Structure formats: C-alpha cells, structure tokens
Amino acid sequence: MPSKVIKRLMITCWCFFLYTTLHAQQDTLHLSLQQLFERGTEQHLQLTADRLKEKIAHERTKTARTTRLPELNIGFKGGFLGQPVIWQNGMSNPTYPDSPDWQQNYTIDFTQPIYQGGKIRYSIRQADLEEEIARLQTTTDQADIKLVLLEQYLNLFSLYKQYLVLNRKINESERRLKDIRQMKAEGIITNNDVLRSEMQLTNDRLSKNETENNIRIVSQQLNLLIGLDEHLLLIPDTTLLSQECPTTEYEDYVNRAFLSDPALLLLRKQTELAENNIRLTRAEQLPRLSLTASNTLARPVSRTLTDMYNNSWNIGLSFSYPLSSLYRNRHKMKEARQNVLLMRNVEEQKQQHIRMNVQAALLKHHEATDRVEALRLSVKQAEENYRIMQNRYMNQLAILTDLLDADNLRLNAELQLTTARTQVIYTYYELQRAIGAL
C-alpha cells in the first residue's frame, strides 16, 4: 500500500511540475494507456471505415438469404391497337374486321426455386464468409493501430524525461556558470571556461525548446488519431513503466498465435472462401428446377379480337440444364482450384512469419529487460562520475571539458534508461500483437 501511495504522489508531482513549467498556458490531459486504446479503437478513422465495411457485408448476407424466397412479378402492358388486315385468298381481297382501339394485358408471375445445384446455399455461405473476413480485418487493423498508438504514447515518455533532465541540467548549468564567473573574477580561471559554459547553456536551452516542440507535435498526432482537441497537451501515465511483463516459452506463444492471431484467422477464412468458390462454380454445371405459376388478364381476346377480357392461369415445373457450362466452366474450375492452393500457400507463409515475429519479439523483450538492468548501474556510475568531476573542477584538479563531458554522459545515461524502460513495454505489447492477444 505505501508503494502505491508513493507512485501516486510521484505522478501528481510530475503532472504538477509539467503543468507549471512546461505549458502552464495550455490545457493538459492525463491519459492512461487503457484510455488511449479505448479512444483509439472508437475514434480512429481506419477502424470507422472497417466497421462500415462490416455493416455492408452484413447487409450483403441478408441480401443473399433473400434468394431462397420466391420471385414474384406483376406486369401491365397497354397501348393502341392498329387496324388488323385479313386476306382470305392469298394477298388479294383484304378485309378489315372490326377491332377495339386499345389493348390491355395484366400478368402475375410466380417462380419458386426448388433446386439450383447448391448455388443458393453456397452463395449464402460466401456472404457469411465475407462478413467474417470483414470482422477479422477490423480486429487485425485494431491490433495494428493499438501498436502504433502505443509507440507514439511511449515516445511521450522519452520526450518528457528528456525535458525534465534538460530542465535540471539547465538549472545546474546556471548555478555552475555563476560559480565560474565568480572564479573568473577572482582570477582562478580564464575567460575561456566562461565562454564554454555559456555555449553549453545555450545549446541546452535550444535542446529544451526542441523537446517542447516535439511534445506538442506528438500530442497533436495522438489527439487527432483518438478524436481529442488537437491543441490538448497529453501527459502519459508513468505507472506504465513499472508494469509487470511476464513471458512464457516460445512454443507456447506460437501455439497461441496459431489459434488466435486475427491475421491468420482471416487467411483461413479466405481459404474457406476459395473452397466455397469451387462448389459455387460446380453448381453452375448442375440442372435447375423451379416451381412456376402465372395468371394473365388480357383484352381483347387474342384470336378473335373480340373486345372482351380473357383470363388464363397456369402452374407447372421449369427444368433447365446449362449444357454450355460443361465447356465454359472447365477453365473456371481449374482457376478456382488453383486459387485454393494459393490461399493455402499464403496461410503457410503467414505461419512462418508468425514464428519469426514471435521469436524476434521475445528476444527483443528479453534484450530490453537486460538493458534496463545494465543501464540502471550506468546511471548510478554516471551520477557518481559527475559528482567527482564537479568537485575536482571546483578544486581546479580537472578542466571544464571533463566536467561537461561527465554532465553529458549523465544526461545520456538517464535518457537511455528511460528509452530502455519504454522499450520493455513496447516489446511486450509487440509480443502480444504477434500472438493475437492485443
């Protein structure tokens, strides 16, 4: 419990310091990693487009299911009926019988598919697979976007740490410059040390200003991606750096990836889609049977041209066999089979890539963890080295260049440690992405 309280106090102090010293005039927001992922998955434009594609695919499945329903058509035909001419003896002695001036025709046609060689069933299956593919594509893009957001988020850690270190270094340099000017006035040192200290202080202030601008840039990029005010200054959650990142064996990660990686699952669905396309192509070669019914109300009577309504209806079976498909679909079938082999090949390639990505991410994570332990010792050594060089310089036992080198060495060691700590977090989540758990 005390450690948690200490962490919260550290976060509060850090946020207060950043607010008061970095951009007191700019609105800030403390953003946790969970909030970043939630807003990123809700507001990112790429995921919005993916969800629209999901809805389109869902409507397509509903459309495919309507093909099982009967086809019902109603029609009307009306128009002016010209004067008929009848020749009873060859082409001579024409007669002009009386006939109405207008004709009308009302029809109702009903067709219920009974057997289509499986075409309807496989078309519905195709639409279902395409909907699942759209959903898996969203999941894949969501994991990739989370990793991109995490990289930007961790970049803020390094920038804020760089700002804090530079700010501390500038304060120490200002105090040191005051002491050096006093030593110069007493004639202990030459003006060269004063100039060198002023130049170093100027460079540090320029670096601090550059870091401030980089913080603004990264904050704006994240704000735009997650749908926040682009002028808002984001402050990351420092407790993330102390997060536990346990790992297991390589084969366990590979097995989990083969079961849950959305990109691999997407390829498997695409393979199923290619296999379904073979069945759909084969269905084009099979006979078709439908139940048909029709009712027609017409005026005048077609044979006698009597100005009367005539109603007729029929019901029956319609059978057709597409003989031309036997030679037209032959190459189409070969193409569909080759496409299945291609998709299986792509699936095997993805499995190879998963193995390589898991191995690389696991090794990089262990490497980053080892680097943190080594750099912690380097920071302590750099702090001690700077303390010694500062004492030696003040006693005129070392030159200013040695002191500035020790100061820069301490700065680099602290920044390297922060980078290494963020790299531990990034490689851990990169490993989760490789196994489909992000």
Automatic annotation (TrEMBL):
The keyword Transport applies. It comes from Phocaeicola barnesiae. Its main location: membrane. It comes from the Bacteria. Keywords: Cell outer membrane, Coiled coil, Membrane, Signal, Transmembrane, Transmembrane beta strand, Transport. Residues 1-24 form the signal peptide. The keyword Transport applies. Pfam families: OEP. InterPro entries: OMP_efflux, TolC-like. GO terms for cellular component: cell outer membrane; efflux pump complex. One of its GO terms (molecular function) is efflux transmembrane transporter activity. It is found in: Cell outer membrane. This is TolC family protein. Residues 126-183, 365-392 form a coiled coil. Belongs to the outer membrane factor (OMF) (TC 1.B.17) family.
